[in-house]
Every structure is written in structure tokens, then in C-alpha cells.
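Researcher: Go.
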Amino acid sequence: MKKVKIKHHTSYIKMLLPYLNKDIIEAGCDEAGRGCLAGAVYAAAVILPPDFQNELLNDSKQLTERQRYQLREVIEKEALAWAVGIVTPEEIDQINILKASFLAMHRAIDQLKVRPEHLLIDGNRFTKYQDLPHTTVVKGDGKYLSIAAASILAKTYRDDYMNALHQEYPFYDWDKNKGYPTKKHRAAIRERGTTPYHRMTFNLLGEDPQLSLEFE
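Model: Structure:
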């Protein structure tokens, strides 16, 4: 039974779709860092060639760190266009994390050197970008190559950023937890207080029920 599941998972990885609409320019979009207590939220937009193929490319959460960075090189080399957008912790506190996630995607799309004709968005909600049509896809980073590619760029560039912040504030274990609410991270907040990079509107100590901001 276990072997069957593994085989199914392997075939699933190879079945990511190259596009939703064959004859138009699509950009896949995804974000990283929405559930973190500290740091900016990152998003990426990627336009892949319609004939792009890569059996390893998948949702960044399903890959090892080494695989993600290897794929980042492939994506940046072979994509027709790619860009990364960032929204700071201060902005997150001002507008809330959901709006910040959409804004980060908008900022990524702003920077694309090729204008897309359609957007594929990971999740089930999105704020319309200019006059471009979009399609939201639940768990899209495991279904479409362009969204998976965006998830990898957003994740790896945000990891680079959190690793750099760790050098400035080593007590919070950001090189390992990347700002997510681990026990060690919250213990460090209790002991040493917050930093300029913490999201002050978040439930930093975990003492009250956290409002769930997750969406598929």
C-alpha cells in the first residue's frame, strides 16, 4: 500500500500542467511568508515558454532546499520573464497580510519585462490587477508549472532575505525557521522582545487564539 502511494506521488509531480490557456501569455503567481511573525512577504510572477518541461519542478514545499535553488537557476534562465515583489513588515501591519500578499504579487507583475495576457494565481482569492483577467487555482503550485516556478522564486528569495536578517538578529533562529512561529522563535520574543522586522499586528507570543489568515 505504501509503495502505491509513493508511485502515485511521483506521477503527480510529472503531471503539472504547462498552461491553462494555450494560445495566450500566462504568468503564474505565488507568495511566500504569509504566516510568518517576522519579515516581509515575498511574491513572484513567472512566464514560462509554452513548451517548458521539467519533471522536478513542483510546489516549493515538496522540494528540498537544494532542489529549490537548483530550480531557481533553471527558471531564471529559461523563463520568458520573471520578477519578485516585496511588501515590508510595516506595510503588512498597515494593510493586513491578505492585502499585502496581493500587493506583493502586483509588484512582481509590475516588473515583468513581458506583459502577460492572463494571470494564474495560487489560492482562491485575488485583487484584480489592472485590466488583466485572472484565474485563481486552489493549490495551484502543485498543478501548474508557472505557479510552481513562482512559488520557488518567492520562497528562495525570501529565504535569502531571512538568512541575512539572521546575521543582524541571531537570537530568533531565523536561519532555520525563516520567521515562522516556532517555539524557539516565540521564546526569543519573550526573552528579548521584538525587532524592527516583527509584524506587530500578529499574535507574536501565541497566547491568544490566532485568527486564521490562511486561504487555499
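Model: The longest strand covers residues 26-32.
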